[in-house]
Amino acid sequence: MYDYPIIVHSEAGHFWSSCPDIPEAHSAGDTISELLTNAVDGICLALTIYVDKGRSIPPASPVGEGQHVVHLPAQAVAKIALWNTMREKGLRVADLARLLEVSHPVAGRLVDFDHTSKMEQIERALAALGKRLAVSVEAA
User: Fold this and answer.
1) Each residue of 106-125: pLDDT tens digit?
2) What kind of architecture, by CATH, is found in domain 3-71?
3) pTM (2 decimals)?
4) CA 67 to each of CA 15, 46, 126, 139: distance values in angstroms, whole numbers, following the listed order
5) How many angstroms separate the CA atoms of 104 and 121, rounded?
């Protein structure tokens, strides 16, 4: 659902990427492997733009021919789910803070992709919004 396809471009012996689903996401690297590692950070950084602008985060489209896939960390996926649920319900961070009985900064960190949150806190926030976090393991 949030394994985003990226398009890899080569220029002067270096690589850079674009993401059709998250046009704000770009990354670069000296090798494709480095680029794919950096693409995770590039997408997560771009997701902060969506939160800052109050926009829902789009799901990933199917991977097309010649595209590479970027698998986001579980915590980033959980934060996307929390943010999109908040958007669906018309809630702001202040509303989440009141609902969880925490300060605004604490609630804000739950949808801050630069901050490492405890999964239990994200689960608690999702539960308060009527959602449950489910984790699955798939073959690589």
Assistant:
1) 999 999 999 999 999 999 99
2) 2-Layer Sandwich (3.30)
3) 0.93
4) 13, 19, 32, 20
5) 14
